[in-house]
Write a structure and sequence with these properties.
Structural class: mainly alpha
Order of helices and strands: HHHHHEEHHH
Strand content: under 5%
Distance between the termini: 39 Å
Number of helices: 8
Low-confidence stretches: 1-18, 179-188
Helix content: 55-70%
Shape: globular
Largest sheet: 2 strands, antiparallel
Length: 188
């Protein structure tokens, strides 16, 4: 055995999943993407836990504040994503056409990039991930260009990120409490 090798990696159950070489329809890709999106959103933390008043305290130092932001960003990443997206969408309420264009653009990103797990086939040919990314970037640039809402989006995303950072700094991370509870349960 080679030093540092993992014996579990040689078992068939531990081998990484590979994509099927059988093309699936675009409707199946979209259906699976929607399923993955709903699974990701359902993994968000409950909002009452997110805003519980008894866990907010001023950090003792900048180091503690940075550590809190890191831990809370990991723990509440879905909630923070929803806040930032909501803030960006609220910034576009004054321009309903732009809001609809950006909802469609965001939907394309979610379906075809973030939550797609199978290769995309168009006309019987597989589309590379780089081409999908390039098309989505171009669609986003065109959406910004034609709607003229770059300033609104920057302000909306900035406000959302600011709210998330303030929450992350002042909220005591739950991971420490959960680790303490697990240790006390093991000793008893």
């Amino acid at each position: 055995m080679v030093v540092g090798s993992n014996p579990k990696m040689s078992t068939p159950a531990a081998t990484p999943a590979t994509y099927t070489s059988i093309p699936i329809s675009g409707a199946d890709v979209i259906s699976r993407s929607f399923h993955n999106l709903s699974a990701a959103v359902s993994s968000r933390r409950p909002w009452p836990e997110f805003v519980a008043a008894d866990v907010f305290h001023r950090p003792d130092s900048l180091t503690v504040a940075g550590e809190r932001v890191r831990k809370n960003a990991s723990y509440f990443r879905i909630n923070y994503g929803i806040l930032v997206l909501g803030s960006a969408m609220i910034s576009l309420v004054g321009t309903p056409i732009s809001l609809m264009v950006w909802v469609l653009t965001l939907g394309m990103w979610l379906i075809f990039y973030f939550f797609r797990e199978d290769p995309l086939f168009v006309g019987g040919r597989q589309v590379s991930d780089r081409l999908v990314l390039l098309c989505l970037v171009l669609a986003s640039v065109m959406a910004v260009w034609f709607t003229g809402v770059l300033e609104n989006l920057v302000v909306g995303v900035g406000i959302g990120l600011l709210v998330c950072c303030v929450h992350g700094v002042f909220r005591n991370p739950l991971e420490d409490d959960e680790a303490g509870l697990r240790e006390s349960a093991l000793t008893h």
